[in-house]
Amino acid sequence: MLKVGVIGCGMIGRDHIRRMTEVVTGTQVVAVSEAMVENGRRVAAQYGCKFYEQGEELIADPEVEAVVVCTADDTHARFVLRCIAAGKPVLCEKPLGVSAEECRRIVDAEMQAGKRLVQVGFMRRYDRGYRALKQQIEQGAIGEPLMIHACHRNLSHTHWHTSDMTIKNSGIHEIDVLRWLLGEDYESGQVLTVKQNRSASAGLLDPQIMLLKTKSGTRIDVEVNMSSGYGYDIQCEVVGEQGTLRLPDPATIVVRAGGARSYEIYDDWSKRFIEAYDTEFDEWARSLAHGAPTGPSAWDGYAACLAADTLIRAREAQQPLPIELPETPAFYR
Amino acid sequence: MLKVGVIGCGMIGRDHIRRMTEVVTGTQVVAVSEAMVENGRRVAAQYGCKFYEQGEELIADPEVEAVVVCTADDTHARFVLRCIAAGKPVLCEKPLGVSAEECRRIVDAEMQAGKRLVQVGFMRRYDRGYRALKQQIEQGAIGEPLMIHACHRNLSHTHWHTSDMTIKNSGIHEIDVLRWLLGEDYESGQVLTVKQNRSASAGLLDPQIMLLKTKSGTRIDVEVNMSSGYGYDIQCEVVGEQGTLRLPDPATIVVRAGGARSYEIYDDWSKRFIEAYDTEFDEWARSLAHGAPTGPSAWDGYAACLAADTLIRAREAQQPLPIELPETPAFYR
Amino acid sequence: MLKVGVIGCGMIGRDHIRRMTEVVTGTQVVAVSEAMVENGRRVAAQYGCKFYEQGEELIADPEVEAVVVCTADDTHARFVLRCIAAGKPVLCEKPLGVSAEECRRIVDAEMQAGKRLVQVGFMRRYDRGYRALKQQIEQGAIGEPLMIHACHRNLSHTHWHTSDMTIKNSGIHEIDVLRWLLGEDYESGQVLTVKQNRSASAGLLDPQIMLLKTKSGTRIDVEVNMSSGYGYDIQCEVVGEQGTLRLPDPATIVVRAGGARSYEIYDDWSKRFIEAYDTEFDEWARSLAHGAPTGPSAWDGYAACLAADTLIRAREAQQPLPIELPETPAFYR
Amino acid sequence: MLKVGVIGCGMIGRDHIRRMTEVVTGTQVVAVSEAMVENGRRVAAQYGCKFYEQGEELIADPEVEAVVVCTADDTHARFVLRCIAAGKPVLCEKPLGVSAEECRRIVDAEMQAGKRLVQVGFMRRYDRGYRALKQQIEQGAIGEPLMIHACHRNLSHTHWHTSDMTIKNSGIHEIDVLRWLLGEDYESGQVLTVKQNRSASAGLLDPQIMLLKTKSGTRIDVEVNMSSGYGYDIQCEVVGEQGTLRLPDPATIVVRAGGARSYEIYDDWSKRFIEAYDTEFDEWARSLAHGAPTGPSAWDGYAACLAADTLIRAREAQQPLPIELPETPAFYR
Questions:
Q1: What are the residues facing B240 on neighbouring strands?
Q2: Beta partners for D220?
Q3: Are the beta carbons of C186 and C323 closer than 8 angstroms?
Q4: Considering chain A, what percentage of its residues have pLDDT values greater than 70?
Q5: Which helix (H) or strand (E) holds A256?
Q6: Could you give the dihedral angle defined by the CA atoms of residues B220, B225, B226 and B228, in that order, rounded to the nearest 10 degrees?
Q7: Looking at beta carbons, which residues of chain D come within 8 Å of C264?
Q8: Which of C228, C229, C260 shows the shortest C-beta gap to D265?
């Protein structure tokens, strides 16, 4: 039973605490930390575990064997570095850092420490559909992949959403999972702006289209749409030399009523990817029991941030820019 | 160009006149007849053709080479018999007669005349989907057919609809097309009554379930539902020894909106089977140009009526009854 | 943490041991029993738990708080009765007994004991799709249910499969889940035999069609097909007064290749209902932590067996027979 | 009955001759012309119509009321200009000319003549699915369109296929139909090259991705893929402010066999768009009976060619280029 400390008790943090308590068999939450102290104490009381005001204290607690970081994006790197320093495995929600530079520091520190400790919360890699896509690609079912058409649609966006968050917080899921699907790095990226959706906040670039090209010449287009107006909808079609593979829509019942045959579309990620999150934590705990995390690495987190940073600059420059990721170090292969 | 006279200018009659004038290349409507004289004259004027008060006069017109009968069900047999007597091909809307006995008289008269003249308006045999089912069955794609699950659903029913009409006017389409799909005759039939739909007229048995068994032991269940409440919907799944074949839903655009992915369902047969009707008339005209009709024969009309009559008696008897159709005479093979 | 003893280490037993060890958080397997002693010892060693040659010894073990019965069908009743005598909760794989009489004895014993202890392994009630159907029915989305068209198809059958097993082992899932969906008891049942699938064993009645009628007049037809030839496929459409609801096909990726768009169909129940089994055990453990099981009761097990027994007699009699279930006792309401 | 002369008796020409003879009621083919004289005479004999070695002779024949041009692309403009000079309506297969300049000359000649005579064979505008998309867009079902994701896939390409033909012969369908769907002109275009499909000819850029931006800022991406390896497949999703609309797959029967649920994909355009072609010719004949063609105009043909030419230059320049179409003249509005 892995004894876990959770830093950050916001919505996603509480969800992971519940998950590690009620769903995953191999984990036990022994301590939580939260900057909003009242809230944090309440959660600790609910789950009968210790509370620390400072994440650093939680990391230092000898009972805590592994850490989950669910705080604000700009504190991720700080806590992850501290975990590395303490030699404790850490599962950090995405993004790993607010910039490629931050992520790079984590990579360097981990390599310095000489041991894989960091995993990034790219849960889509655990989704049954994406896994089936990857398996089929690797089995050669469609020959070499040539293109990916994808889209990420939210029902609507929060009032504090920014044009950069579209890339760095939402688009980053696509950046990671498609790189993983194809098993290769990006060569260049570009962002197309689109006629604005009048349902989006004034000034927000919404939707945006990310264009990516891999080293081997595979082309990717991803609609990132924060105001779909109808639901949370993730689509992905991989086009290969001999056929295509497509992510399924979730299996929802078929209703024939009122002149239509219809299928529910979920309204947020928590329903859409609930099984992926469960599997992510389950496999994380199992991998640690065998010595080291096997999920998305610090390097993957760095690669995704670097691509996202480049895409934002490319959008501003209104032209494609090279994504200059070094070769994967042997440490991460 | 086949010169056609149409008896009956109701909704379906006018639709066929339009079809033979505007859609089918090989037909020309030269005369119409209609008991409601005013309406009939108006149609004749619109299409620039002759008008007869009596169907018999129309049949006798030497310019009329072939006849289409679209009158009330209880006059079908009279006009068809007259066409046979006149030696003119006739396409009669279903049902061929109001009873198996009436149909039998037509069969006998046609055999006596020694020439195939009669075709019955079972247009589903011309539907692209049913034809693909039949083709796949005959190619052995699923081995021997063992069962058919089908349903016929109307959006709602007219106020003059009766429990018998459910079998004889709607269900008869299923009786014919499934017999044709399987290429064999029925051995017995049964009707299950169901908890009444409160949207149906008081006293109407709606829905009903027809159960049929073929000579070889294939089982068929058909829901016949006059008050589906949501649309006109025809479904058919043929279960064979190695797989199943299913009629497709019509190809309507995919709408993602309001939390659902949805597809329109048509509200009546005219949209659903428009292409089948067009093909029916086109092939009828072509077959006559080659000498004789090749579509559903008087024998098929008789077989369907006999099965329908038996099903109605079986419903009243609340038990299965044998469907005692003689062997198909060589004349109709 | 519920300490569980498992009687029967066959395929399904081992799967449940794995499930309670690796997937469900609230259960721990502390003892197993198995008639084939070698196999049983091996499983006990693998999971580090006690082994008993006799199920009765396992039930008597004071450490065992609850029991799971996965033995041959004809031993179910014996072990369940022993658990009741010992005052221990028991989750028994379906069917609860080999006859309605056996089930009735369990019901009587449990009522005598004065406490709900028995749950039957009808896992479909935990399937996401069936639950959505039930929720929509109860919310009145389609008005009153009038009919259910269902089918249960296995890829192929074992060589020891019998015509009665089609009803009592496979069909019984449908009997239970549809009774639960509709929330009412059956009035009568009938079985139609079908032209035999030549892929089935000689003499086996395969497929069969079960026809059920509920107290309120809802009609159900269920194809039970042990030799579908293409996969494990469960279908269910509920037809109501204003629309229909249909179980979805599992969400499998869309492959466009070789002139077809295609979706995988699973080949057995373990993939199709894996999530339902997990939920079943999870909710069972939680319900016991709150005092008593809330899943399918001994009465449900009795009701299903009674219907199955009646259907088998009805098949032999070749006519519908009444299903004479007494009113649900207050104890089970 | 419109008396039509057809110039060009290749595959598509013969198909249109058959269509105008057997399917469309308002047309009669009275003369054909074909450079390969033997073939042309054979077709004329088959359909019992006149034969001319020179298209110009056919146009001059006083019996010929309207002309259909189905010759090699580089002769289209010549024959269309001759029809304009003769004051005869002409339906010209796409593309209208081999360059925007050629098309522009036709536009100028037609405006000079002062009468709409030219229609271009963009048959997709007559497809039931595209028409439903356009109707829904215009009814505001999804708010303003923001993006279109489309793809055009051929099973495989001819050995004489060139990288430019991908844009000018195949992509041009998309260029026209999407401009028509949105009801606005393009502002700029770009082409992305992709890792080459090894099934494509050496040196052929296949697939290619066309990116278009409309005047209002709607973004379009179109995969144009000559070697899909699995079928002829046309997809189109319009993403609006409140939802999306998608072209349906053709309605083909559902086969459950061999571990999969599958639907046939057609292998070429003739099956996929057969109904669109029929409607195109039917409406063309009807529109001429009312005075002038109402389908895609010479201006539409010019607009499409101009966009295609620009896209080819943009592909060579590896950057977006403006599509400098003048405002639509009043004559064409």
A1: B145
A2: D148, D212
A3: yes
A4: 100
A5: strand A254-257
A6: -140
A7: 259-260
A8: C260
Q: What share of chain A is helix, strand, coil (3-state, %, to 5)?
A: 40, 25, 35
Shortest CB distance from C265 goes to which of D231, D260, D267?
D260
pLDDT in tens, C151-174: 999 999 999 999 999 999 999 999
What is the full DSSP assignment across A205-255? --SEEEEEEETT--EEEEEEES--SS--EEEEEEEESSEEEEPPPP---EE
**3-class SS of residue A73:** helix
Q: Whose CA is closest to C5, among C53, C84, C65?
A: C65
Positions of E strands within chain B: 2-7, 27-33, 50-52, 66-69, 90-92, 118-120, 145-153, 186-193, 208-214, 219-225, 233-240, 243-246, 254-257, 260-264, 321-322
Contact D22, D84 (CB under 8 A): no
Task: Pull the structure tokens for residue B126.
Answer: 């011309």
Contact A24/A283 with Cβ under 8 angstroms?
A: no
Report the residue of chain B nearest D259, measured CA to CA.
Answer: B243
Relative orientation angle of helices C274-289 and C11-18, to the nearest 10 degrees: 60
Pair D330, D297: CB distance under 8 Å: no
Residue that is written with structure tokens 């081992």 in the block: C14
Query: Which two three-digit tokens encode residue B134?
Result: 């039949």
Question: Quick one: DSSP state of residue B328?
Answer: P
Assess whether pLDDT exceeds 90 at residue D270.
no
Residue B146 sits at the chain C interface (C-beta within 8 Å): yes
C243/A254 Cβ within 8 A: no
Q: Take residue A69 and report the two structure tokens written for it.
A: 């970081």
- The structure tokens listed for C175 are 């009997």
Contact C149 B146 (CB under 8 A): no
The per-residue pLDDT of chain C, averaged, comes to 97
Which has the closest alpha carbon to D236: D222, D250, D224? D222
Binary contact (A253, C263; C-beta < 8 A): no
- Give pLDDT, residue C201: 94
CA distance A259 to chain B (A): 5
- Count of CB atoms situated within 10 Å of the CB of A317: 11
Candidates C144, C223, C239; nearest CB to B223 = C239
The distance of C328 to chain B (nearest Cα, Å) reads 23
Q: What angle do CA C254, C260, C265 make, to 5 degrees?
A: 50
The closest CB to that of C243, out of B149, B211, B229, belongs to B229
Q: How far apart are the CA of D17 and the nearest CA of chain A, in angstroms?
A: 35
Length of chain B: 333
What ipTM, to 2 d.p.?
0.95
pLDDT at B272: 94
Compare CB distances from D133 to B133, B246, B253 and report the shortest one's residue: B253
- Give me the DSSP letters along C80-113: HHHHHHHT--EEEPSPS-SSHHHHHHHHHHHHHH
Residues of A in contact with B256 (CB under 8 A): 228, 230-231, 233, 265
Q: What is the pLDDT of residue A270?
A: 85
Average of per-residue pLDDT across B137-143: 97
Distances (CA, A) of C21 to C28, C169, D165: 6, 27, 62
Which tens digits make up the pLDDT trace of B236-278?
999 999 999 999 999 999 999 999 999 999 999 889 999 999 9
Chain C partners (3+ C-beta pairs within 8 A): A, B, D
How many angstroms separate the CA of residue B331 from the nearest CA in chain C?
30
CA of D250 vs chain B CAs: smallest distance (Å):
6
Torsion angle in degrees (nearest 10) through CA of C272, C277, C282, C287:
130
Least confident of C98-107, C183-192, D264-273: D264-273
Enumerate the residues of chain C whose CB falls inside 8 A of the CB of residue D261.
249, 262-263, 265
Cβ distance D253 to B242 less than 8 Å, yes or no, reads: no
The CA distance from C68 to C90, in Å, is 6
